[in-house]
Amino acid sequence: MPRWTLFHRFILRPLKREPTRTALTVMAVALGVAAVVAIELAGGAAAGSFHSSVETLAGRAGFELTATGGVPDEAVARLAALSLDLRIHPRIEDYAVLADSRRLIPLLGVDLIAEPALDGNAAPDAAGLNFFQQDDSIWITEGLGYKRGDHVTLLIDDLAHECAVRGVLPAGAGEAVVMDLAPAERLLRRRGVVDRVLIDTPQDSRADLATVISAALPQGLTLTRAGARTEENQKLLAAFRWNLRVLSYISLTVGAFLIYNTISVSVVRRRHEIGILRALGATRRMILAAFLGEAAAFGFLGSMAGLALGRVMAEGAVRLVSATVESLYVTSRPGPIALSWPVAILALVAGVGTSILSALAPAREAAVVAPVEAMARGRREHQARVQQWRDLAVAMALAGAAWIASRQQPVSGKPLFGYIAALLLVAASALAIPALIAGLNAAALDLWRRLGAEALVASRSLVGSMRRTSVLVGALSTAVAMLAAVGIMVGSFRQTVVLWLDDRLQADLYLQPAIPTGADRHPTLSPDLVPLLAALPGVAAVDQLRSYEISYQGLPAMLAAADTRITQRYGTRPFLSGADPADVFAQLQRGDAVIVSEPFSNKHGVHTGDSLDLNLGGRPAAFRVAGVYYDYGNERGTVLMDRSTLLKYLPDPAPTNIALYLQSGVSPEALLPLVEHALAGRRVLVLTNRAIREQGMRVFDRTFAITYALEAVAVFVAVMGVAGALLALVIDRRREIGLLRFLGAAQGQIRRMVLIEAGLLGLVANAVGFVLGFVLSLLLIFVINKQSFGWTIQFHWPVGVLLGALSLVYGATILAALYPARVATRLVPIEVVHED
Amino acid sequence: MALERVSKNYITEGVPVPALCDVSLEVERGEFVALVGRSGCGKSTLLNLAGAMDVPTSGRVVLEGIDTATAGDTGLTRLRRERVGFIFQSFQLLPVLSVVENVELPLLLAGRTGAREAALEQLRWLEMEEFASRMPYQLSGGQMQRVAIARALVHAPALLLADEPTGNLDSATSDLILVLLRRIATETNTAILMATHSTEAAAMADTVVRLRDGAVQEIRQAVKQA
């Protein structure tokens, strides 16, 4: 109790006396924690959602059987004939769009007679089953606003189908449209194949059941434990979520600098009091505990506020994260945002832990103050200056360690050493700041005088309060560096994608089904469109592209095929592997070779000359890798083969996309009416070359929107920190400010002095942040991104973005100084000068 | 500088508390006036009013012909810049500036040219030139007060206000500072108004004004020894 009284009087009471500064520090922690909480919640909601409908409706199967291009009916028959106690559920799985709401929804074809129970709760009733074999009969889950007897238009691939709702399934089944297997096969153009076979096994089934089932099946089919696909997707998403998590901790890192600053201010201000307390019998441990308690109080309050704020921010974050997951990884619908105990504990650990860790150094410093040692600030700052050269040496050593760390290989696919290198660089730059400020000040010694008394006092005050200034510059420069680094990385990536699209998109018009596509959804066009389009006047070539979802080495990937003769004729794209394009295309056209995308190559360690084993159409097939190509279309990785090769294994001729190359002199706009006429009645999206590029860039920009949002939070935290710290500086230097008024300084000059101080601080932070950001961007582009996602990014300076961002931060820093400047001008000189 | 029937009240918790009552005083160029009296008698308030740091509740403070009550904040700032110099008990040097930078500060604030030369000249006059590039924490108390005096004189003020200038110094150093102030009044024709508790300090002045409870109790001209 007495200790609590001491803590209250010595620590909490002074905090109450400065509510603005206390609130700013708490808010800095709160925002840092909120960013972490928001990303954790959003990541959970977005990643947890892709096993919503399809997986929920899968019931409690033991195994599942899949094959690229579908599981042949004969394999299903073989399974059924096995003398094992198995229940077989063949399924068609795809997506349809509800035409009236434009909502994408899973479409499932199941054998409604043989196994009417989709899962325990989702059985269609007997009345509706009378119509099960009709092509227009569907069952729909409740919550979508339909009832039995309603008529629904479903967009499937490139056609619209009028359907009748025969029954409503309970909500427990998730959202889906269900139909009988046979009509689904017809509607979705599955000929003699199903997409997946679920296998129910008895509770006490044999341990070697999987081996027995596999042995009974033809080669080329994949038998996995049920739910393996969800695990594959989780694995695929791991790097994305990991990187997002790391980004979300930037704000907290910036907040850590500010906690360090706040506790340092407390220690410096109360040095005299510490001396008295020590003389009166306070132990070092008590002093240490008092200041760590102060930090913990900031951390606790910040965590609580951050938890609530993070829950609110998660609403926005989940939309951005889901959009990225959808376009780059897997079909996803955001699940509910669940604020769970683990997330609350994470917030507390992050907030309180960061605060206590940041406060350790200043608190230890307070604890070692000898009772007789209540030194003046000038002396202490002198010590800080003396140590600046030692710190610079440590900074250089850390930079060297960062270089070594950046050369290391990833650990379990994660660029751990890359992150360590980034942290070492941030620490190195923070340690180099005092020497840099001193050096700059010495270099511009005369310049400040020439600029006037305000500039002279402001610059000297910055150097004079070196310990504090360097921490502030450290915080702001870290935020600026992250902004610059991510800005350069995203700008470089964007430019790389622009160049890649320029090269890849050589056709004049592109056709795709008018329902949303995704990384794992490949709706098809009717194959009879191809001759119609080829016959149009002015069309030089028609390329048919086909994509399939495949699984390779336990990870989802994409199998794609194109007419490589056309690609060769129109494309100019060089191969990453440096292979001769003519030779590569010749190999592809011979039918025994494939090329793989860069992310595929990096993810699976597959290189030119390697052999690649795939299961296609229920048959195993081996291909030689003829080359590795640049691809930024999806992160899962792609295996590309010639269309003729694909058709040998998977004879479905329906293309996923069609590319039309026009004869020279024929304008795409002029041909559009003819194309649309040929498509009469089909739901097909026709995009010009320019439109598809714009669409690509929109996806790109949407992908990085969350990154910019997190950066903005970090910068906001830093700028708030600057406001709080400048306020502290003004309060601590109030006597000097009062003295200046005695010496003839006008109020405007005092205001200018504080603003110049903020300006100098911003300038140094921007300069340090820019240099650090440049180095970090190299680390992001060539180490972290490469090891996480496997993409080669060409370095590019996004000058406009950088200038804009840096100016914004600079302007915000000056704005943040307005309130402290106002406080400074309102000080009553007579009172503050005679305070002693 | 003249104070004409000056009163000053401060408001404490809504209640006006008188600090000075009906004080009249005139200080001529070259005159050295000492203000004496107990703590809280109004010495510092009188200095603040005389130095254009504050305005009276009633009465007039006239500095070089200008009534401070009508000057406004800009006018008061200009008066301080051009006509008044301050020295304090605790020296009040800016710890982040070197000696010469401290001294030239008033000139820089006033935007005057030739600040560095004038500052060095002032330091030379006070025999402190060799310390010009030192930082305040590298000086002794007496040296710091001499730097503060240099800063107060650098813009050639008409009035030098000194608030307990020897309060933080030992007696030998105090004597040196007082002699210096005496010399300033005589050689530079600067009026000096000094608040002090010390009878030795007051003995250096031409005039001693004794304040009690905010009112002038006694004005005594010093008897100069031949």
How would you portray this structure in words?
The complex is a heterodimer of chains A (836) and B (226). Chain A has a 9-stranded mixed sheet with strand order 16-17-15-18-14-13-19-12-20, sandwiched between helices. Chain A has a 6-stranded mixed beta barrel with strand order 3-4-8-5-7-6. In chain A, strand 16 and strand 17 form a beta hairpin. Chain A has 836 residues and is α+β, with helices and mostly antiparallel strands. In chain A, helix 13 packs across helix 14, helix 16 packs across helix 27 and helix 17 runs antiparallel to helix 28. Helix content of chain A is 58%, strand content 15%. Chain A contains 30 helices and 20 strands. In chain A, 51% of the residues are buried. Chain B has one domain: P-loop containing nucleotide triphosphate hydrolases (Rossmann fold). Chain B has a 6-stranded mixed sheet. A 4-stranded antiparallel sheet of chain B has the order 2-1-4-5. Chain B has 226 residues and is an alpha/beta fold. Chain B has 7 helices and 10 strands. Chains A and B meet through helix 13, helix 16, helix 26 and helix 30 of A and helix 2 and helix 3 of B.
